[in-house]
């Protein structure tokens, strides 16, 4: 049973009171199941040993961060209380890039044939069409008007998240597919694809329950995984991921501008 959002905390009650709502705990079943999928991926990574154990710890931390009793809806939060959730969501997976650099993991800088990047652009185009965004309205600015303005802080936070999150997500959730072999070469990457979807549901995002959204998430997870596994590099998938996020980033920027000039 869902818990109705709490009223905004009064000024001066402290950062935690603004960021969290204890009534949101325990989480809904879908959030717990999403966290369980992420933990299953973490266990699979842990069993590979070495640097993958650092990845496993970060995936588990990612799940735990999503299960925190964040105050909902997010628009009730302002300032650092809103920014904090997004910062954690970006910082946890992206920190695996630092781990990979420190341990000289070969997939971090491994490139591939140029035509895989063309394939990546085609994949991004398919995902964007599947998402159903009206690009005519987006480019004219009318879509931002229809969606409604957003506070500059919240919109700019989502812009930063849309740009930075793909780097960490590709590193943490798909890099294993570059060098994997044997039975683990199939099972662990597929668990990673499932965990990639799950991390978007471990937080309380009701709009993601729409069938079309779920279908596009599944398509994206499988397509990006295939790009990594077949090309032997995370870079084409990273390109496709960034291009896929670009329209949403533009929309958030436009919403911010409308609020600023409204």
Polypeptide structure, described:
- The chain is mainly α and 262 residues long.
- It contains twelve helices and no strands.
- It has helices spanning 15-19, 29-46, 52-67, 80-102, 115-131, 135-140, 142-147, 152-174, 176-179, 184-198, 211-231, 235-261.
- α8 (152-174) packs antiparallel against α12.
- The radius of gyration is 19 Å and the shape is globular.
- Residues 1-14 have low confidence and may be disordered.
Summarize the structure.
By secondary structure, the protein is mostly helical.
Q: Per DSSP, what share of the residues sits in E-state strands of 2 or more residues?
A: under 5%
Annotation field: number of helices: 12
Query: Could you tell me the radius of gyration in angstroms?
Result: 19 Å
Main β-sheet description:
none
From the N-terminal CA to the C-terminal CA, the straight-line distance is 38 Å
H/E series? HHHHHHHHHHHH
Spatial shape: globular
Instruction: Detail the poorly predicted runs.
Output: 1-14
> What's the total number of strands?
0
The average pLDDT is 88
* Percent helix: 55-70%
Structural class: mainly alpha
How would the blueprint of this fold be written?
Layout: H1 15-19, H2 29-46, H3 52-67, H4 80-102, H5 115-131, H6 135-140, H7 142-147, H8 152-174, H9 176-179, H10 184-198, H11 211-231, H12 235-261
Helix pairs in contact: 2-3, 2-10, 3-4, 4-8, 5-11, 5-12, 8-12, 10-11, 11-12
Keywords:
262 residues; mainly alpha; 12 helices; disordered N terminus
């Amino acid at each position: 049973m869902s818990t109705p959002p709490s009223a905004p905390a009064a000024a001066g009650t402290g950062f935690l009171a603004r960021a969290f709502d204890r009534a949101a705990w325990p989480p809904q079943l879908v959030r717990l199941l999403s966290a369980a999928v992420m933990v299953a991926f973490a266990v699979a990574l842990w069993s590979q040993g070495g640097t993958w154990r650092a990845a496993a710890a970060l995936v588990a931390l990612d799940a735990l961060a999503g299960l925190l009793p964040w105050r909902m809806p997010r628009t009730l939060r302002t300032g650092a209380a809103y920014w904090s959730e997004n910062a954690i969501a970006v910082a946890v997976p992206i920190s695996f890039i630092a781990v990979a650099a420190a341990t000289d993991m070969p997939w971090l800088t491994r490139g591939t044939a140029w035509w895989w990047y063309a394939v990546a652009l085609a994949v991004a185009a398919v995902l964007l069409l599947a998402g159903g965004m009206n690009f005519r309205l987006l480019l004219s600015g009318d879509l931002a008007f229809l969606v409604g303005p957003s506070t500059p802080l919240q919109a700019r936070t989502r812009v930063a998240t849309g740009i930075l999150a793909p780097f960490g997500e590709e590193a943490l959730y798909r890099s294993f597919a570059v060098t994997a072999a044997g039975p683990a070469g199939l099972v662990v990457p597929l668990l990673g694809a499932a965990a990639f979807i799950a991390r978007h549901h471990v937080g309380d995002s009701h709009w993601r329950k729409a069938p079309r959204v779920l279908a596009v998430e599944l398509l994206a997870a499988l397509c990006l995984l295939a790009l990594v596994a077949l090309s032997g590099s995370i870079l084409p998938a990273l390109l496709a991921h960034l291009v896929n996020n670009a329209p949403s980033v533009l929309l958030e920027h436009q919403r911010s501008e409308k609020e600023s000039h409204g």
